[in-house]
Every structure is written in C-alpha cells, then in structure tokens.
Request: fold
Amino acid sequence: MNVIETAIEGVVILEPHLFEDTRGYFFESFSQRDFEEKVGRVNFVQDNESKSFYGVLRGLHYQLAPYEQAKLVRVVKGCVWDVNVDLRKDSPTFGKHVAVELSEKNKRQLFIPKGFAHGFAVLSEEVIFQYKCDNYYTPGQEGGIRFDDPELGIDWRIPQKDILCSEKDKQLKSFRESFVF
Ligand SMILES: Cc1cn([C@H]2C[C@H](O)[C@@H](COP(=O)(O)OP(=O)(O)O[C@H]3O[C@@H](C)C(=O)[C@@H](O)[C@H]3O)O2)c(=O)[nH]c1=O
Reply:
C-alpha cells in the first residue's frame, strides 16, 4: 500500500497493491498492521455502505465532540468527488478543504482524521460507497455545513441543476454560522 500526502496535514490517500491475473484482481482492502505502520493507530469500530445515483451529494457531515469520527473511505462501484473541510481550529488549514476523486478504477482510499466535515458528490451513474469509522454513529450528535456555502468555495464537479441532497442536508447552516470566529 502506497501512502500519498494531500495538501491538508493528516488527510492521506492510500493506494492498495493490486494483483491482476486472468481471473480478475485481488487486493487487501484493509490491513490493520499496514495501516498502523504507515498511517497510525486507529481503532475502527463501524463499517458503513451507501448506494447513490448520479448527482447525489451527501454532506458535509461530522459528529460533535466527543463523538467525532475518523473515517477511511472508498468507492466499490462508480466514482465520486470526495471533499473534506478542515474544522480543527488550531490547524493552519482551518476552513480549507481537500478534494480527491475516488473510484472503482483508481481504488484509492482516503483517510480523514477527526476534526473534518466530510461529503461526496456522485460523478458516475451509480456509486457504492464504503467506509470505516472509529466512533459509533450517535443520533442527535450530528453536525453539518451547507455544501454550497460560498465561503468554502467548493467545486463539486457536477452542475448545480443535477445536485440531489437529502432534506436534512438542505437545512444545514453555513460554515460561519456553525463555527464562531
Ligand atoms: C450515518 C448513519 C446513518 N444511519 C441512519 C440514519 C438515517 O435514518 C439513515 C440515513 O442517514 P444519513 O442521511 O445521515 O446518511 P448519509 O447522508 O449517507 O450520512 C453520511 O454521509 C457521509 C458523507 C458521511 O461522512 C457519514 O459520516 C454520514 O454522515 O441512516 C445509521 O443508522 N447509522 C449511521 O452511521
């Protein structure tokens, strides 16, 4: 597994070692030992899977302290534009975001530490998205930021007219409303 740094400290891309032969392919989608050696010790406790169609945008989500979640995300089918906003107040990149294309083809995984708002937009016809979390889902402790907050200036790589959000996500507040400066 290759580890590639991103523009934001702590967010890293993982590229698995792919074995291809006449039958198809094989790769280790997660190895605790490799992860610990190359990224760090994280105790993942929940695995999630969602399916979404073209234009779906889920985000930008986080859980409030002390229920924050580090996530290891990947695409099993299709392609997404995965976006993470740095909410760590002591970080030099506070309020900045990093975006990575994750696809069935590139098999990239993204590790997102605690302290980020996470979201993705679906670029392909259909997407199966899987992720590991190091804290359980805690209803009532969910936070979020509007995906279209002009202050964040995120290019989601799909036309506005095609974007499909949940009712909950349409009600989210702006970055400035959520984080007192
Ligand atoms: C996230 C989650 C949701 N649910 C339930 C609550 C709800 O009824 C239903 C759908 O939930 P949501 O609409 O919040 O699902 P979704 O919009 O896919 O939420 C996810 O978005 C991505 C971007 C993330 O980063 C995740 O952490 C999570 O917030 O599933 C769980 O039971 N466990 C979970 O861990």
Notes: The chain has a mean pLDDT of 97. The chain has one domain: 2-178.
